[in-house]
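Q: Could you fold this chain for me?
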Amino acid sequence: MSRRTLSVFQSLWAMEGLPWRGARAWSLDERVTRIAEAGFSGVGLDLHAREAPLAADVAPLLRTFRLRSLVTAFVNERTPLATSLEYAHTVGAELVVVCGQFFPDDPAEAAGLVRAWREETEAAGFAFQLETHRYTLTDDLAFTDRLVRELPDVPLSLDLSHYVVGNELPDLPDDRVTDMIGRLLAHGSSLQGRVATREQVQVPLEFAQHRAQVDRFRGWWGDAMRCWLRSLPDDVDTDADLVFLCELGTTPYAITGADGTELSDRWREALLLKTWAEELFATAQQEQGQGQGQETP
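A: Sure. Below is the predicted structure, expressed as structure tokens.
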């Protein structure tokens, strides 16, 4: 029977500045070791990160620990996609997530750019996804909603935190927002874990004042998982895997106090995100199996 699985990755960018309140930062080797020992399936490599490792340095570690990888590529006039594809080839990545820093006014023109990036990525042998990210062509929620109408089969890497803070989405339920987010969830091919408010892109997950926003994001992630499961073909020979990337960024994403120390332990929170993602997926699978009258294998 076909298998529907969830794979939780940890962002290597999100390992910068750790351990919390530590005397020294973990080395690259220590970061990758801890990711593997914590049971993550893979590593997210953001080439835009301050401490993005050389491909030649991280590739042997990934092989040693049998960790999968994805590469996030920021594509602009100075950095062509080909640079990231070469990096992805060296580290053995399976997925390239594109953040396109081009800003056409016309969704049809934006769709042309996305098609070209997808063709180039897939021709190089990698799966392609377009990330929802601030200061890229998916910056605005309404524009992205129009873009996916131009590209009904576009696979999205959903980081919804950027819309909450970048578009200052209302805290209370809003039909317009619900409709647009719902259409994006239907295109979700991977998810990124971070919780935002309309003022801050990343807030501590266990502070009581953020409970409503945590619930909002957990609801979106669960809905995206259900959409993904419903979208899969019934072919018994087709396996499918959904990636959830824990991406709690270092400063300035992480909020600090007057002394410059982060307010919460991002590594502890990454492990919490991993648990939440696994629980949400198990629930979505159970609901899907009940809807079909049988358990999903």
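A (continued): Residues 4-291 form a domain with the TIM Barrel fold (CATH 3.20.20.150).
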